[in-house]
Amino acid sequence: MNIQDLSQMTLAALREGYAARRISPVEVMERTFAQIDAANGAINALYDLRRDESLAAAKDAAQRFKRGTPAGALDGIPVTIKDSVNAVGMTWHHGARLHGAGVKGASDAPPTAKLKAAGAIIIAKTTMPDFGLSGSGVSSCHGIARNPWGLAWNTGGSSAGAGASLAAGIGVMSVGSDIAGSVRLPASHCGLAALKPTQGMIPHTPASDVRSAGPMTRHAADLEAHLRILGGVHQEDRFSVPVVEASGGFEAARVAVYRDFGFGPPVEPAVIAVLEAAERALGELVAEVSCKDAAFDHDIYLAIDDLLKLRGWREYAPASAVLRQEIPAGLLNWFKEAEHWNGDRIALFEREIARGVLQTAQLFDEADFLLTPVMPVVNFPAEECGLDPAMPLRHCTFTAPFNQSGHPAVSLCGGFDARGLPVGVQLVGRRFDDVRLCRLATALEARMRAAAGAIDWPLEPRH
């Protein structure tokens, strides 16, 4: 096996190879760390590498497979977790030099605990931008993560290192987190599949009504398995809910297609072209696909942006004067107005968010699923925090509304632009319809790859 073979394998194929002893977890781990050595210097996606521990764990897994007693559904599988996902002995920085030397994990976050219980081998942590509050790979702590499809281009964020490393063939899955698009945006930038679940279906800490942990993979076919492993009720997340079984197939489903929502940056022609190709492929899978006009009567992102500003200020404010100097000026300029907000000002944007949630939910009045772009643009330079310096998550037009409404959403690679850069499309499902959403995404990806061929992953990062 070489890294090219490994990058094309689904989780199911790799697990079957382990069980049949055609593939060794030790060989996979050796190839994985060789790929880290070859690619991570260019893409700057990983830190806190666990080489010795991972190789030892892979040897233990190999012995279990030899005895026919694997430890769990992910035994011997190399995975990564985001900087912001706590793990015993691994360092949390939240992407920011403002947090000094970081915090050594004293406990496992629910996704980490579930990975370990399934036998997964956590090989490293992945980089992210400061506070997770830009849709980019720009971090005062980690430096700039770069996209292996083109090192001059952005990885997206905030699960930036996860996107870059998976596209470069490193690991089988990464746990990211998503508060406005933070697994879906890097999936779009890097040609991956990612799931933001129904709020609470994958538990995480601290408990949140808008931020979700979610799996990122090279293959949409892997998403359901990871949802089942990571998902379910957890006592530390008061919003957590069980994984709900699908009520049927998707063949009779109605899909509404939105080319824009009537607000936000204009959608680039290359994005529309890829969306239209996905629309045609969906027409072969479901009962009805219909294009819809812009659905909102106001720019619902503006209130969400205020909420994110307040989150930024609250993380910044407790830091010492010395550490406050470490925050990037552009980020501070964006969120510092929240310093002076009173209760009435906060209540104003909360009312506007509630109004936007209602209109988002109404998108499903006559549809079972939605198809939209992930972003209005294909990409932007690696050094930039977003399209608009004054609003670093402005390009979350299509993703952020579903964090607020709690609907599950999948990003998958719909195609490539003329420069060879990936373009994502987003499928959104009704709340608690995550399993059926994953299955539709798998079928859509398979249909599109059958037409275009398997993705030639950028295992040697491209200049």
Report on the architecture of this protein.
- With 463 residues, this protein is of the alpha/beta class.
- It has one domain: Amidase signature (AS) domain (Amidase signature (AS) enzymes), CATH 3.90.1300.10.
- It is 36% helix and 15% strand.
- The chain contains 15 helices and 15 strands.
- The chain has helices at residues 3-8, 11-19, 25-43, 51-67, 110-117, 160-167, 184-190, 223-230, 269-282, 301-316, 321-324, 329-335, 343-361, 400-405, 434-452, and strands spanning 46-47, 78-82, 91-92, 103-104, 121-126, 138-139, 143-144, 173-178, 193-196, 212-217, 254-258, 288-292, 369-373, 409-416, 422-429.
- The strands form 3 sheets. The chain has an 11-stranded mixed β-sheet, with helices on both faces. Strands 3-4 form a two-stranded antiparallel ribbon.
- The longest helix has 19 residues, at 25-43.
- The mean pLDDT is 97.
Concise synopsis of the structure shown:
36% of the residues lie in helices and 15% in strands.
Write the topology of this structure.
Layout: H1 3-8, H2 11-19, H3 25-43, E1 46-47, H4 51-67, E2 78-82, E3 91-92, E4 103-104, H5 110-117, E5 121-126, E6 138-139, E7 143-144, H6 160-167, E8 173-178, H7 184-190, E9 193-196, E10 212-217, H8 223-230, E11 254-258, H9 269-282, E12 288-292, H10 301-316, H11 321-324, H12 329-335, H13 343-361, E13 369-373, H14 400-405, E14 409-416, E15 422-429, H15 434-452
Parallel strand pairs: 2-5, 2-8, 11-12, 11-13
Antiparallel strand pairs: 1-5, 3-4, 6-7, 8-10, 9-10, 9-14, 13-15, 14-15
